[in-house]
Amino acid sequence: MWSQRVYQQCTYCVMDTTDPEIVFDEKGQCHHCRSYQQKVHKLTYQGKASDHDFKLLTEQVKIDGKTASYDCVIGVSGGVDSSYTCYLAKRLGLRPLAVHMDNGWNSREAVKNIKTICNSLEIDYVSHVLNWEEFKDLQLAFLKASIVEMEIPTDVAIQYALHKVAAENGVKYILSGGNMAGEAILPRTWFYYPKDSKLLKSIHRKYGTKKISTYPTFDYLDEIYYKFIKGIRILYPLNYVPYSKPDAMKTLEEKLGWVKYGGVHHESMFTRIVLSYLQPTKFQVDYRKCTLSAQICNGIISRKEALAQLENLSYDPDKIQEEKAYVAKKFGLSLAEFEKILSLPPKSYRDYPNNEKLLDFLYSTYRRFWGDERSYHNAGYDSSS
Predict the structure, then answer these.
(1) Which SS3 state, helix, strand or coil, does residue 277 take?
(2) Dihedrals φ, ψ of 73, to 5°?
């Protein structure tokens, strides 16, 4: 599935033929940024209309949660988006409960940021800790499967923890830090549905060595249960405000003592090496192109500035061997064993049994009849659609 096309880069954003399904028009502009301009920009901040909608939504969250100890749940990672969502929620007078899914890979900065944010904003906090031996085996299975979506085990566990805690506390709203300002562009070939339990089980069956007994599952059936039976909704507050990640970082640093830790999602040691090194070098998937392209479309950064950033490596060549050695040791592998797994030929999720057709149908149907237009992240959004 990896691109064998002659290299071409969009003349408006910085997406290129490393997305093998990218389509260019006669002016050399790609379908991702055309889609943004035609549809997605309406899902970002729209001035007074967004202010009005957000005010109504916030009041509804307060009303629906007035008899519970909390009126919303926020997943926190120590990163910018979730930390700023906490800041915004408190500023609006909401009573959030912070939830962190601990998969064993938290960086020191992430742990410190979570504590700092929750203490400064006086937000109660709970942590859902995974069984490390089971989770480690599942992560290694995905590494051996050699697909780009190596973070599916983490993504599934996060959704489980958030919905479980919300249901246990009688909370109807989960506030997510997902946002269109920086995440509106995402090719399907770079990000498959994390809620495909058929794919997860097939990979575990082929490469796992331990029985799964405590690892939580969260697939479309769980999502239907929580959404339609328990009435729990996921909201994306950052789509209702003029959100800029650089501005948010400055606010968090100055007002709350939050500490900058590096690139996007680098609050996890495993995610850091996956996003910054493994995906770009093995799969030609550099997520910086998605983030920067979305920021170009949203007027946050110029294409020239984005191209300048992409001239730098996505990882630090002076530290990468040290980081790989750390990850290998935590997995209980020698560096040579870890390198051997990393060097396996790249594959696609389509090389394993999966529910892609079913999920395509379910999510497209949901978006057509029930989808909150600002909830694409929750409904298997990809910018190719």
Answers:
(1) helix
(2) -120, 140
- Token match 């290998």: residue? 328
Written as one string, the DSSP assignment of 2-69 is ---SPP-B-SSSS-BTTSTT--B-TTS-BHHHHHHHHTGGGGS--THHHHHHHHHHHHHHHHHTTTSS
CA atoms within 13 A on the CB side of 13: 32
The dihedrals phi and psi of 82, each to the nearest 5 degrees, come to -70, -35
| Closest CA relative to residue 178, chosen from 164, 166, 162 | 162
Alpha carbon distance 42, 64 (integer Å): 27
> Which of 21, 53, 371, 362 is CA-nearest to residue 188?
21
CB contact set of 285 (below 8 Å; sequence gap of 6+): 18, 148, 190, 279
3-state secondary structure of 132: helix
What are the Cα distances from residue 22, in Å, to 16, 28, 384? 7, 11, 8
Residue with tokens 């800041």: 87
Q: Is the pTM of this model over 0.85?
A: yes
Categorize the per-residue pLDDT at 36 as very low, low, confident or very high, splitting at 50, 70 and 90.
confident
Cβ atoms of 114 and 190 closer than 8 Å? no
Tokens (6 digits) for 117 = 């944010």
pLDDT by residue (tens digit) across 196-232? 999 999 999 999 999 999 999 899 999 999 999 999 9
pLDDT score, position 343: 95
* Distance from C-alpha of 291 to C-alpha of 298, rounded to nearest angstrom: 10
Specify the 3-state DSSP secondary structure of 170: coil
Percent of the chain with pLDDT over 90: 76
DSSP string of 72-118?
EEEE--SSHHHHHHHHHHHHTT--EEEEEEE-S-B-HHHHHHHHHHH
Q: For residue 347, is pLDDT > 80?
A: yes
Q: Could you please report the per-residue DSSP string of 322-358?
A: HHHHHHHHHHT--HHHHHHHHTSPP--GGGS---HHH
C-alpha 192/C-alpha 155 separation (Å) is 11
Percentage of the chain lying above the pLDDT 70 cut? 93
For residue 384, is it left (φ>0), alpha (ψ between -120 and 50) or beta?
alpha
Specify the residue for token string 């937000």.
123
